[in-house]
Amino acid sequence: MTLGTRYHSPMAPPLPHRLAVLCYLFDDRGRLLLLHRRKPPNQNLYSPVGGKVEVEAGESPTACARREIQEETGLSLAVADLHLTGIVSECGYEGECHWLMFLYEAMRPVVVAPTQIVEGRLEWHEPEALKGLPMPQTDRHVIWPLFDRYRGRFFAVHIDCAGSVMRWRLEQPASDCGPWINVEGEGGTGNG
Length: 192
Description:
It is a single chain. This protein has one domain (17-182): Nucleoside Triphosphate Pyrophosphohydrolase, CATH 3.90.79.10. Helices cover 14% and strands 34% of the residues. The protein is built from two helices and ten strands, in the order E-E-E-H-E-E-E-E-H-E-E-E. It has helices spanning 61-73, 137-149, and strands at residues 17-24, 32-37, 46-52, 82-93, 97-106, 115-117, 120-125, 155-160, 167-172, 181-182. A hairpin with a 3-residue loop joins strand 4 (82-93) and strand 5.
């Protein structure tokens, strides 16, 4: 076995890689701020605040998280207010690209009024209610449960969306790593 073989999908098509951040913001009641997206990617689905890293400008993931939070919510958070909770790599998402996503958590409660923005509508939701919201299957089955489990700590996961069945593998922390896990009844496209 060559280095990287056990983590790389044998069916992964040659696709562009995109970098993004997802920002998990909670209020003092423990509710999560979600964006009901009006446009792609993930149109008509719920996802955390976030966006693409401006790679050409040399933007860091943390700077991107601060920028996206400010652009979408009006909040100005300091670097010290953010914690890198996870790194997610998605292979073959919707057959269009591979994603490398940095998941940040605001370390203090925030106040944001529900409002309409260019990207969609910002809404507060109880964490228990996420099961009933339309969201990408990667978020529902892998990203949110791992984020919730590792809040305040760190994890890394690789999600293979390239095959007929979505599967994932926890890569960090090393003490929790295990075999690939298939998401039964779900196609490998990544959206759900």
